[in-house]
Amino acid sequence: MKLIHKTAIITGAATGIGKATAERFGEEGANVVINYLDDNHYTSVQESIARIESAGGKAIAVKADVSRVDQLTALFQQAKEAFGGIDVVVNNAVIAILKPIVEVTEEDYQRMFDVNVKSVFFSLQLAGKLMNDNGRVINLSSHTTALFFPNYGLYDANKGAVEQISRVFSKEIGHKGITVNVVSPGATDTAEFATRPQELKDRVKAMSGMNRIARQEEVVNVITFLASDEASWVTGQNIKVNGGAI
Questions:
Q1: For 94-116, what is each residue's pLDDT tens digit?
Q2: 155 noted as active-site residue
Q3: With contact defined as beta carbons under 8 Å apart, do 140 and 90 qualify?
Q4: Which residues contact 244 (CB under 8 A, 6 or more apart)?
Q5: Is pLDDT at 207 greater than 90 in this prediction?
Q6: C-alpha closest to that of 100 among 148, 153, 147, 158
Q7: Nearest to 131, CA basis, from 69, 83, 182
C-alpha cells in the first residue's frame, strides 16, 4: 500500500474527485480526514468512511468551511489530534460560477476567490507550520487555465492563482522535503458533469484524441502517485490529466 500510516486531509471530499480520492487513499492505507461543508452530503461522507473502514483503514469526517481561516485551522488541528500528524494535504474544495466577465458581480468574485484561492493559500500556510517533514501537498486546478473558454474568466483566474501559489510554495518549503504539485483534470465523469448539455459533452469529448472524458479513477491515480513516497523528486509541477485535450 502506497500510503500506509500516512495521514491525509482532503478538502471538498464529499463528492466527485474528492470523494474518490478519499476512498482510494483509505485503500492505500492512509488515515483519511474527509472535509465537507453541506449537511446534504453527510450520508455520502459516512458511506466513504464505511468503505475505508471495511478495507481496514481509518477515517474521520470534519465539517468545515475552508474559506474561513478559523475553520480551516480547526480542520488541521483535528487531523493532527486524531492521528498524531499530517503527511498529505489535497486541496480539492471548489465552487464554479461561470459567467461572462461583464456579468460577474463583486459577490461572485469574492465568494469564488475565498473558496478557490484563499482556502488554498492558508492551507499551504498551515501545512508549512504543521505538516510532517517529507509531506505532500496536491492542489487541484483545471486544464481550462490553458484554454480560452467563454464564461471561465473568473474561474480560470482562481485556478491560475492556485497554480502560481503552488509553484512559489514548492520553493519555500522544499527544504523540509515537502513537495507541492498541481493536478489539472480535464472533463471528468462526475455527477456534476452529467448535468451538462449533451452538445457540450460531445464537444468536450472531441477535444481529446481518445474521444472521451476521464474516469474519476484516472485522475485519482495521479493524485495518489503524487501523495506517495514514489513522487519524492516531483515538485512545483502542474500535471494535466486531460487525455491530451486541446
A1: 999 999 999 999 999 999 999 99
A2: yes
A3: yes
A4: 208, 209, 210
A5: yes
A6: 153
A7: 83
Cell of 90: 489535497
Residue 62: CB atoms within 10 Å: 20
Q: Measured between alpha carbons, how far is 217 from 235 in angstroms, rounded to an integer?
A: 22
Of 134, 122, 4, 103, whose CA–CA distance to 64 is shortest? 122
Please give the Cα distance from 22 to 220 (Å, whole number): 9
**Strand 58-63 vs strand 31-36: parallel, antiparallel, or unpaired?**
parallel
CA distance 97 to 235: 30
From the candidates 42, 109, 152, 155, which is the catalytic residue?
155
Please, are residues 219 and 138 in contact by the beta-carbon 8 Å criterion?
A: no
Residue 6 has a pLDDT of 98
pLDDT class of 197 with cuts at 50, 70, 90: confident
- Give the sign of the dihedral formed by CA 215, CA 166, CA 155, CA 45: positive
Instruction: Report DSSP state, residue 230.
Output: G
Cell of 115: 473558496
- CA 87 to chain centroid: 15
Domains in the chain with CATH codes: 7-186+216-241 (3.40.50.720)
**pLDDT digit string, tens, across residues 5-43:** 999 999 999 999 999 999 999 999 999 999 999 999 999
Give the three cell numbers for residue 243: 487525455
Whole-number Cα distances in Å, 230 to 100, 128, 151, 161, 233: 42, 21, 38, 27, 8
